[in-house]
Protein 1
Amino acid sequence: MIEIIPNWHPLLVHFTIGILSCSVLFYVASYAFDLNFRLERQWIHVANWTLWTGCLFTIFTVLAGWHAYNTVAHDDVAHAAMTLHRNWAIPTALAFLLLGVAALRTVKRNRKPAALFISSSIIALLMLMTTGWLGAEVVYRHGLGVMSLPNTQEEHHHHAHEANEEASSPHTDDEETMPMPVEEHNHADHQH
C-alpha cells in the first residue's frame, strides 16, 4: 500500500459517499419537480447509474473498511468509535445495495421510482451521512490511520494566513497540547 495510507478504505469511501449522495439527489429531484418527460427520464437514468456505480464502490469500501477495522492499531476508546462506525456502515451498505436491486426492477418495468423508493433513498442517505460522520470521528477525533500528529510543544506555528491577520497561537505554553500516548494492542483482544 502507499506509505502514507495504511489501507484502501480512505481512498474508496469518499467516492462511495459522493456518488450515492448524488444518486439520491437525482432521484428526489426527478420525483419532486414537474419536468418535461425527457429531462425527467434523463435524471432518473443518471440516478440509476450513479446508484449502481455507488453500490459497486460500496462493496469495495466495506471490504477495505473491514480490513482496516481488523488491522489499524488502536486503543480501547478508538475501538469503541470504530465499532460504532462499523455498526452503522454495514446496514447502510445493505440499504443501498437493496435500493440498487430495487432500481433494477424499476428499470425492467420501465416505471418511475415510487414514493416508497424515494423515501427509502432519503433514509439511506441520512444513514450514509451518519456513517460518514462517525468515520470522520474515528480519524479526526481519535487519530486512527494517520501517520503522525503535529508536535505542538516544540515550536509554535506562527504566521498569518491573510495579509491583515495577525499571527497568534491558539495555545499557551502552559497548555498540554500533545495527545496522550496510545497503548496499541492486537485487535483480537476485543470480542466482536
Protein 2
Amino acid sequence: MDEAEEIMRLPVSPARRVVSVGLQAFLGLLFLSLLSIGEAGVWWGPWALGALGLYFLVQAWGMWRASAHDLVLRRDGLYDSTGACVAPLAEIMKIDRGVFAMKPSNGFLLVTRTPGGRAWVPGLWWRVGRRVGVGGTPSGRMARQMADVIAAMVMERNTQTPET
C-alpha cells in the first residue's frame, strides 16, 4: 500500500458548517447592531461592541473558509485536504475519546510523542503542544470511525515495533 494512498476521509457536515458559521455571523451582526441603538454608559462601550462584532464576523469568515476542507487519513498520518500534516502516524501515542477529554464537539483527541507547533483550523482541528483535537463541524459518527481506524493503526504499529 502506498504511503500517500487515502485510507479514509472525514468530511465536514454541511448542516453543521452552516449552523456554526451562521451563529458566529449572527453574534457579530448583533454586537454591531447594538452600536446603533444603545447609549454609551462608558467611553469604551462602543469600541468594545464594535470590536466584538468585527471579531465574530472575521471568525465566521475564517470558519467558512476552513470548513471547506476535509481531513484525510493516510498510511503515514492525518492530513488536511490541502496537504498540511496534522499528525504523523509515527508521532501518535494514543487517542482519547472520553467524555472528560478536552476535545472538540463530536471529535477526538490525539496525543503525540513530541510537541508540534500551534495551529488552528476553526471547526476542523487544532494543535497545542502534544495534543491535537479533531472535530467540530464533521459528523460525530464519521469522527468515531476515523478514531477507531487510527487506534487500530497505532496498535498495529506498536505490535510491529515494540517501544524501548
